[in-house]
Amino acid sequence: MDLGIVKTEYFKIEGELPLECGKSIKDIQVAYETYGTLNENKDNAILVLHALTADAHAAGKHSEDDRKSGWWDNMIGPDKAFDTNKYFVISSNVLGGCKGTTGPSSINPNTNKPYALDFPIITITDMVEVQKKLIDFLGIKKLTVVGGSMGGMQALEWSVNYPDIVNRAIVIASTSRLSAQAIAFNAVGRNAIISDENFNDGNYYDKEHPTQGLGIARMVGHITYLSEEAMHNKFGRDFKNKPSFDFGVDFQVESYLDYQGRIFVDRFDANSYLYITKAVDYFDLPKKHGSLKEAFQKTKARFLIICFSSDWLFTPKQSKEMVSALIQAEVPVSFVEIQSTLGHDAFLIEVENQTKIIKGFLRGQDGKA
Amino acid sequence: MDLGIVKTEYFKIEGELPLECGKSIKDIQVAYETYGTLNENKDNAILVLHALTADAHAAGKHSEDDRKSGWWDNMIGPDKAFDTNKYFVISSNVLGGCKGTTGPSSINPNTNKPYALDFPIITITDMVEVQKKLIDFLGIKKLTVVGGSMGGMQALEWSVNYPDIVNRAIVIASTSRLSAQAIAFNAVGRNAIISDENFNDGNYYDKEHPTQGLGIARMVGHITYLSEEAMHNKFGRDFKNKPSFDFGVDFQVESYLDYQGRIFVDRFDANSYLYITKAVDYFDLPKKHGSLKEAFQKTKARFLIICFSSDWLFTPKQSKEMVSALIQAEVPVSFVEIQSTLGHDAFLIEVENQTKIIKGFLRGQDGKA
Q1: What structural domains does chain A harbor?
Q2: pTM of the prediction?
């Protein structure tokens, strides 16, 4: 069963919110959606935390004729992994995004123009601080946090920074810090955006946007989201038609990436891409707390760590490092490595396996302190 | 011992050379170097075939005050893997290149302007045809071919197309066809070049060059040349200085890629990058001959296949596919997978291991038919 029609709502953080970089942002708006009903004890809430380019619209449709449902609709709804008959599910767009929450494309109240690169550098910690304001506003007392990829980073940050609120954390296809290789891919993406002739130091909102650069950044991203095997199975060396003997789109895999690049630029802001990838690069839980074990000694949550065997961007090795540190910190942790050829993207696709595991984890923990 | 001072020489193919695409190129110039002495039987020649962006200058120095030696100087010279006391080593710049052999930056004799994108699409087969003219010109009767990466593709093509000349083929960190993932990375690189505001349909030779795009292509390339482990060991998550909280170069790995991009654009032509990566993408030995086994049934060479355990661009799996097909085709083959953390770049760096293996292979085969 599906959720049916849902609606994005907006919450405003009045005044200045101080950021990790030392600057602050005034009157932040937060776009969010909720699914299911908050119980009387206000302790059945699950906060869903999105990855790089998603939004508050995690499940359901905005109107009957919506072609697509929210980005994690296969996991959120009645009887699904995050069962809205039992849980009150909350999803919000991250700070720095471009889907309703304040970001570089928002109007700077001090200038009445878009922030562009005057937007301060934000971190995963800042994203979580904004979500904390929303959770307080909603009156939530106890919280399960869950996220894949960058969403998992936020879940980690939540569990360490708010031990009295977070009682369960589900961290999927994520890491306590990016590898040098993943930073390198993000750097290439940002470089492509900044090099675009239309970038104009980020002040492109009333002109042509840097769509070529953003498209290239997205192409690079999509290569890293798929495993080599998935790409082989999906496209192999097939030509779109026949060898073109020119520099147009030739192979199926080129056609796929070209398409992914083109549809992305219509839905995402290049400046947001810069800010959010930077936040991901900077995230380093062990460094911030001395070590990963010391970080996890601050949490009171029970953990479920899920990773995917063919994920080479947020690797099983990185998940196992977290599991090892959690155990050393005497934190209850369940760990599953799902065998999948789908690469990093698996967290959005491998519904059946994840549903069984997550349902079991939540049932096994319900009612515990 | 080193070779000392060497000199690039030039050879001209008079008239039209027909290409695989159906077009032809007139009066091709070939830049080449030779090291050592051709024996009386003219059967001690080794043709060294270069990778994507190298040149004819494989060993020695061009002048006493040259800071750097040729790109494979650690492997070519007296007593080295390719021992110039015994062998006559030949190295030439590939067709489509920008280092002395005719390519898109050369003057089109029909227009007296650079070819730019009027240069026809070339293939690995075409590169080999040009080398064949040089080998005939030098009077070579028997030939050992050797190459890493794209150089290995040329060695494969040589061994299959000229079985009566090639008696030994050494194929290092190479493949009989790129994976979908490798094609995808090349497509991103080409896309970055073509999207550059200075690209101007390839007609940039008298203007600003598309250096931003070419730099991005090179950054992507370098990520794929290193293993994740090598990047981790080399850079980790170290900052260049401290977190900049802006979008400049921040991490050491960014600094490395930025540097690699910047030095590359001074030495390489963007159009050549387009043409040569396309040739690599198109190379598909099994498809051309029906299967890899059928391809190898045409060779009379003895093979040495070398791969590197951490090479994820030209993978050990791909090398093993070649070994399997060679054995099925009853072709003598030796195979070594060198344990290395250095990724694809290992073929340029792992000198000691390669030297032992290659020397043994060549000694064991010398004097055989």
Answers
A1: 9-179+285-365 (3.40.50.1820), 182-278 (1.10.1740.110)
A2: 0.96
